[in-house]
Amino acid sequence: MALTALLSVSDKTGILEFAQGLHALGCKLLSTGGTAKLLMDNGLPVTEVAEHTGFPEMMDGRVKTLHPKIHGGLLARSDVPEHVAAMQKHGITRIDILAVNLYPFEATVAKEGCTLEDAIENIDIGGPAMVRSAAKNWKDVAVLTDAAQYAQVLAELKAGGLQATTRFQLSIAAFNRIAQYDAAISNYLSSVQGDGSLAEYPGQMNSSFIKVQDLRYGENSHQTAALYRDLYPAPGSLVTGKQLQGKELSYNNIADADAAWECVKSFEAPACVIIKHANPCGVAVAATPAEAYSKAFKTDPTSAFGGIIAFNRPVDGAAAELVAKQFVEVLMAPAFTAEALAVFKSKVNVRLLQIELPAGGDTPWLQGRNAQDVKRVGSGLLVQTADNHFLKREDLKVVTTLKPTEQQLDDLMFAWNVAQYVKSNAIVFCGGGMTLGVGAGQMSRVDSTKIAAIKAANASLSLQGSAVASDAFFPFRDGLDVLADAGASCVIQPGGSMRDEEVIAAANERGIAMVFTGVRHFRH
Predict the structure, then answer these.
(1) Theoretical Cys-Cys bridge with 225: which of 116, 251, 254, 261, CB 3.0 to 4.6 Å?
(2) Among residues 195, 173, 183, 180, which one has the least CA distance to residue 98?
(3) CATH of 393-516, one of 2.170.190.11, 3.40.1390.10, 3.30.70.2200, 3.40.140.20
(4) Positions marked active-site
């Protein structure tokens, strides 16, 4: 008995070729509206759904497939005699294959100027109903919701028939698609305000993520873990990376790799970032990747052992030779030359990640970044806009008698950029396009300052004339005094303390130039 396929798609990608393949296999084709016209115009014999059901399409297309001859054909079980008898009694034809993709609700509401009326008219009713019917009855019906599925289904049909495992996987994909679609509708509608504007945060938040892989364990070996990605991951984000070699990435590897990648892609000049336990322990810019790595490594050679390293330029042989001298967990870059790959060929455990760098716009580093940050709390979520603030030099406010030089401004901007990626309380000493000492994650800002100075001393790096960034204001002058004692010549900080005048006076007294940013970068 010939198979019957119902094709009704909003996105016509690949549907003609799929229909031609089905027709060549002897399938009877049913279709609706624009899909039917496309197939007919290309010479395929198609029965329109209205003719099949004997009931006309009506209400501007809102009602066309909501009919027993459609849903009976999709839901009837071939192994239940009563179902078969009901089909025969009511003249219902079995539908063996259903290809449906839904009205483009997500694309519609993403358009600037989309009205509530536009959104409502792009909520598909008949499509999801058919998809649910077919997916529920997967043992008898193959349901396709993505053009990427057409080729496999045709190949299996040509080989003798669809595998049960394929039909089940198609069913899962179909229910996933319906869940994603309904989540998008819920998110949008629960954001609509009385005046028609959209709230920044919806009344109900529904998220869809796709599992990339199970991980060996979580932060600790007694914890389980998995990596998921956004439904539509942005180019330039970590999950779009391709692992070229090495062991599977662990939970901690991925978390640290993300921190390294977000930091390194924020620099326009060739840069290298070394991350250890979620904090930069060395960051530098230079003319070449090799030079940038050498400078970054000098900041804290001890902590760099077993670190995560990221470049914002292709890794060449020279850079690879330097990195390969040390123990490294993960090395990531936009590309690796053949010479670089050859260097690491014998180091089979080193994980090499190739990630496309985002491009375009005035701030390309913002491309591929999350718009929101989410933190799990007991039975709830904390949701905020991501810290994607881009500081421009003209935003700086000089607050001391001594003005910073152009070179000092360069160093301050570099230091401020690094501080954004250091856990609070964060203090970063920099100079000459590299970090000199990093103090991270302390309860006291003074302690972070002291630790940064100790790190520099351990690496035999001088802090004389250095530039310092503090991710938040100095509540007292003691932090500023420690910086001055260490050799700092200029400071960048948010300002906003009740004792700003006291801290400014201390900077003037110690001969330090200081600028305020007006924003802070807490990172917890």
Answers:
(1) 251
(2) 173
(3) 3.40.140.20
(4) 136, 277
